[in-house]
Amino acid sequence: MTAPRIVSLIPSATEIVCALGFRDGLVGRSHECDYPAGVEALPALTASKLDLEGTSYEINQRVLAVVQEGLSVYRVDGPLLRQLAPDVVVTQSQCEVCAVSRAELEATVGRFLDRPPAIVSLEPNGLADVWADMRRVADALDASEQGRELVARLCARMDGIRLKVAKFATDRPRVATVEWIDPLMAGGNWMPELVAMAGGRELFGTAGAHSPWITWDAFRTADPEVILIPPCGFDIAQTKAELPALAAQPGWRELSAVQAGRIYICDGQQYFNRPGPRVVETLEIIAEILHPMLFDFGHEGSGWVRL
What domains lie within the chain, and their CATH numbers? Predict the structure, then answer.
């Protein structure tokens, strides 16, 4: 049987496809797909319609302007899609500003392809959905057994952390996960589950629900003991440059987390915002931040830094 030709339009899906053993079947990617190493050499079928340089406030304003007009944030290269002739295309329907939506993809497919590919649209609202998405990608590639085995391996690694926390962790600090700085957004979806597994109590996000916008007054009143800052799509350097907007808020210096020196900038782009196989590494990062006496996975300096 001929191996399927696969196009992935979201970084987490690219990582899933490769973890399932189908790296050689990938023929195209999104402009943001950059892991595992080497996938950058594949042709990119997407591009952002927006200028993503600037502060988080400026980026948010540009995104809102496009979305409010009912437009897509991304464009798909239809002629290149036709040239690549994929059998399977993986996209997402969870967030209209994270990657190409299914609706945008279907419109492009209808215009440029005579033979429509199988479209797998991921929707990882919670951790169970992340596992279900992996199995659905595997099913689309006729690799159901590989999908079950991949999920089982990842869950086993996470269970090891959860069980160690349950047995040895003596405290459960109040945690605020900042998914966007200006305006302020807390981590939702799978993030509250990861924080709980790592031995913390997420203050704002609800497992399985979209990330909520919150006010600074609510943040200040909740007084987190630990603050994790992995803005969506930002790496550590970008977040460091943006941090003054958060630190300038009234009462910042009086927060328990600030007083205790427990502010951590995390790589949102590579870990926290990617609901793929490296969700396990995201859990490892949170665990070694919250309970450094129990865990040291070696992510400090690459996956996170202390402010």
Answer: 6-123 (3.40.50.1980), 172-306 (3.40.50.1980)
